[in-house]
Design goal:
This protein has helices at about 15-20, 40-50, 70-80, 95-105; strands spanning about 5-10, 25-30, 60, 85-90. By secondary structure, it is an alpha/beta fold. It has a 4-stranded parallel β-sheet. Strand 3 (about 60), helix 3 and strand 4 form a beta-alpha-beta unit.
Length: about 110
């Protein structure tokens, strides 16, 4: 059972290792609300690079909402990196089609 989730801004790689070493049940690296629009692309690249070189059995990723211009870029980067994350969070789901789209893409 996951009791605690520690959210870490995706544009703060200096905090990733500390978060992963914490006692939290799950670390969620956040590309959505925690990252300003002008920083989203670089944060995405930073997060993918970090997760590609780090064991991530208790790390998840919060992507941008499906009604934003950033969502598809997040999904493409995840698919290309083939990280096989245990959890991917999609915020602000509008309907079941959002979930189906994410499931099909990953």
């Amino acid at each position: 059972m996951k009791r605690t989730i520690l959210f870490v801004p995706g544009n703060r790689p200096d905090r990733f290792d500390k978060a992963c070493a914490s006692a939290a049940d799950l670390v969620c690296i956040d590309l959505e609300d925690a990252v300003a629009p002008q920083d989203k692309a670089s944060a995405r690249d930073t997060v993918i690079a970090y997760l590609s070189g780090t064991p991530h059995n208790h790390v998840s990723l919060r992507i941008n909402a499906s009604d934003t211009e950033y969502c598809q870029d997040d999904i493409k980067a995840l698919s290309k990196a083939d990280l096989n994350l245990p959890y991917v969070m999609m915020p602000k789901v509008g309907d079941v089609d959002d979930i189906k789209m994410l499931d099909k893409s990953l």
